[in-house]
Every structure is written in structure tokens, then in C-alpha cells.
Amino acid sequence: MCIKIVVWIVFVPILFQINECLAQNKSIQEPKIYSEISGYFRIDYRYFPDSALYPRQHKSYFSMVFQPEVYLEWNKGKQLLQFVGFARIDQYDTERTHADIRELYWQAIFKNWELSVGLRKIFWGVTESNHVVDIINQADALEGFDLEKKLGQPMIHFSWSPSWGTIDLFAMTYHRQLKFPGQQGRLRPPFDLDYNNTSYESELDEYNPDLAIRWSHSFSVFDIGISHFHGTSRSPLFESSDGITFSAFYELINQTGLDIQASTGPMFWKAEIIYRVSKRKNINAFTVGGEYTFSNIFSSGIDIGLIAEYNFDNRGQELITGLDDDFFFGSRLAINDRQSTDLIGGIIIDRNNQTLRYFIEANRRLGDSWKISLEVSGFDNVADTEFLYLIRNDSFAQFSLTKFF
After folding, report:
1. Whole-prediction pTM value?
2. Are residue 238 and residue 373 in the same domain, yes or no?
3. Secondary structure element (H or E) that encloses residue 284, with its range
């Protein structure tokens, strides 16, 4: 970990030096390479009001995040290089102190096709509470149990865009493990995970070649995507011989997915559906619902969206997220002011055992390069059959201050 931190410390000044040199060249001659360096620094303070369930955990945590981005473009925009890095230093949790290359890829762009080679993040999905079709990238569980943040995935990505839609082809290798916070962290299970003893169904272990294809198209009021993935599952199964130390097992799967969205005036109808096959079991899962937006309330410029969705997944207790038979009700608020003030919040209710989850996320810009954020996430009445029962005391509030550059 010390090596990673040193790399970041050395790399950042080099990025700014490259940008300065390129800027000087612009004043001398028309540049052949267009460059842009951006990113942000962020300070997070997270507070847990409830007592910790496990030893060595704390009630509050400070951490710092650095995300640099470098964009290079040449050959009249037909070729580009994109880099997005990520690093977090946590006050207590050595596991959550981590670094990752979110994206680092070269891309060639032609009339109706593109070719990308390197690490990328690919997102599929349209619903708000869950993304069952999103399968390409491994989740970064160190950044949150909702599994919204993703790790970079090595791949070759070919995209072709004829008049009847877009075809995306993916060839991938090197599977990335799902990792949880360490012993001093919150939002983690009580058992130790032995990452060195991770096992795979594939004889090639983490180097199994994964393949995926997706067709997407927009017509009339519809946006639709149909996908298929063949390879190593991103979701692990946990195994143990002593009940104390666990290791992860990743099976081979075939997953077919459908995501569709229809816009009918202020109403958006949304659905994601998957069917997954493995040697162990077949899986059906879907999220369906919609969002209705009240625009420009009382001529104030404020938009309010009301969201309702239903989640089903026959994996049941295997799910880390717990979204196996759950309703989601939420609201989105956009002030549409100069400070880009926005808020989203909601509750998730398990239909069978009434386990309750809730969250609020609010953001507001300060000037041109600062932003403040507030996040509240909590649990109530968590059933002991849920994976969330292992983190039932980890409701938290987090304040963040971000500086963009």
C-alpha cells in the first residue's frame, strides 16, 4: 500500500507538468494533440450513531479521495487516450485505503464503428434502485455496500453503429475480486475473508476469457438494450471449513439481459430483466417501475420526480444487497439553480420480512470548483435472514467537501 501511495504522490506533479508543457506549445503552434487534465480531491467525514457490532470498529472516520483524469486526443479526434485514476486514504481501515485505475484505454473512432483497448467502465441499466443487467465491471464494495461504484475492467471493446442500432462486442480477461472493508472498518461482515484462497470454477482461474455482446437502439418513445454475458460471475459464493475464515468462489455463468425505458411525456417507464444459467442453479431477476416528474413547480424552476420500483431475485439470501422481493419508493428534487442543488432519497421495504432501508443524498456547488454533499444511509427492523443483518448497526451520515480542478 505504501508503494501505491508513493506512486500517486509522484504521478500527480508529473500530470500537471505535462499539462503545463502542452499549454506552452499551444501558444507556439497549432497543437497536434489536444489534452485536458481534470479531476477532484474530496474529504469525507462519516459518522455512525449506533455502537459497533464487532471489535476494533469506530464511530467516526475521516478519509481523503483523489481522482485524476487525463484526456488526450489526436488525428483530428479520431484517436484518444483516456485515464481515470482513483485513490482513497482512510483514517483507520487499511483495506479501504486503496487505489485503482478506473479507466486507461486507447480508442480509435471511425465513421460508424469504434475500437477500444484497455481498462474501461461500462454501465448498463435504466432503473434507480438496482441494476441487475449491469455485469461487465466488478463492484468496488470498499466504496459502499450498495455496489454502485465499479472497478476498471481490462477489455477489448468493439462498437458498430448501423442504422438499426448499436452492436457492442466485449472480450475480457483477468477477473477482479469483490473485497470488503477490513477489521477496523464498518459496513463489513463479521468473518475474515481469505483473498489468497479465492477459487474459480474455470480452470484458468481469474484469467478465464469473458465474452459479452449487446444490441441497443432508440426508436419512438423507447430505449432498449438486449445483452448476453458468458464468463466468470462478478458475484461470489462464500465458503468456509471452520465458520471463522471464509473464501470466495466464482462460478461460470451465462446471463441474458433486457433493459428498456419508455418516455411518455413526464412519465418514464423502466425495466431490467435477467435470466442466468450456471451448473449450480438458474436465476431469474428483474426490476420494474417508473418515475413521474413534475416540472417547473409553481413556475419556480424546481423539478420533482416521484419513483416507484419493485425488485425480485430468486437468489434470496445469497444477495449482498438483499433486493430479492422489495419495493422502492423515492423522490428526486432538482432546484435548477446556479449551484446545481439536487437531492434524491427513498426507502426500500422487504415485502416478506419488512426489513427497511432508507437513504438521502444531497449536493450543492460552491462557486465554480467546490461542492458540498450530504449522504444518509440507514437500516431498521432488519431480519436475521438478511445479509444486511450482519451490518444492521451501520447506519451512517456522511459529509463531503470536494474540490475540482
Report:
1. 0.88
2. yes
3. strand 282-294
